[in-house]
Specification:
The protein is of the alpha/beta class. It has 2 domains: 122 residues, 3-Layer(aba) Sandwich (Rossmann fold); 94 residues, Winged helix-like DNA-binding domain superfamily/Winged helix DNA-binding domain (Arc Repressor Mutant, subunit A, Orthogonal Bundle). Helices cover 40% and strands 22% of the residues. The longest helix is centred in the middle third of the chain and has 20 residues. The model has no long low-confidence stretch (mean pLDDT 90).
């Protein structure tokens, strides 16, 4: 069963989450400061990190930035309700999702399951039979989860990889935001939810390091389209 690390200085909340997730059989560790949390998150012993933004010693956003230099363990950010800036920055830095405090434990459970499902797909889904995708100078290999743009390696989180794979499998066709949200994020698209936009923005930035050509087109209010060739 997956091992989860929660980095949050609210000890009572950590214990509540531990008790709730224990019902699903998850292994659970908790740390209450940023410095110790970063060390544990980098250990490679966890399949998911629940990360609070406000932490003593090292704040959550700084921790995430440091973690993403060489580690792509999925991260679910825990933010104060109404702190949209923290959510946007967290997604820009590579968080897989966010949840506003106070949250319903059932919602946390659903987010955890959705993220871990993406991780499971990243390691096992069709690895032996999935076909290499090579579209518009971007190559995506589902077997080893590698992406190259003009033969340069591109590092993506599990969420970014799955989004790009879905868009490339439908190259030249519009994929709606609702479809992407349901099939990749594991939830219905919600009003004012910027998660998809930020993940797509991150993919664009990473690809743009190696090409000036637009790869992903936004159809405002509708969805995204991976271009099958240069404009």
């Amino acid at each position: 069963m997956a091992a989860i690390l929660m980095i949050d200085d609210d000890i009572e909340l950590c214990q509540l989450v531990a008790d709730y997730l224990a019902m699903d059989g998850y292994q659970f560790d908790m740390v209450h400061d940023g410095v110790s949390g970063l060390a544990k998150a980098k250990s490679g012993n966890y399949q998911l990190v629940l990360l609070d933004v406000m932490l003593p010693g090292l704040d959550g956003l700084s921790l995430l930035k440091a973690l993403r230099t060489d580690n792509y363990c999925p991260v679910l950010m825990l933010t104060a309700r109404g702190e949209d800036v923290d959510r946007i920055i967290g997604l820009e830095l590579g968080a897989d999702d966010y949840l506003a405090k106070p949250f319903n434990p059932r919602e946390l459970q659903a987010r955890v399951k959705a993220i871990l499902r993406r991780v499971e797909l990243a390691h096992h889904d069709n690895n032996q039979t999935a076909q290499l995708l090579d579209v518009n100078q971007v190559a995506l290999n589902p077997r080893n989860r590698q992406v190259q743009c003009q033969q340069h390696d591109v590092s993506l989180t599990a969420t970014e990889f799955q989004l790009l794979e879905m868009l490339m499998r439908n190259a030249g066709q519009l994929v709606s935001k609702e479809t992407l949200s349901q099939q990749v994020l594991g939830r219905r698209l919600q009003l004012y939810d910027r998660s998809l936009d930020m993940h797509i923005s991150n993919i664009r930035k990473k690809l743009s390091q190696f090409t000036d050509d637009e790869k992903i087109q936004t159809l405002r209010g509708s969805g995204y389209l991976f271009l099958s060739g240069p404009l």
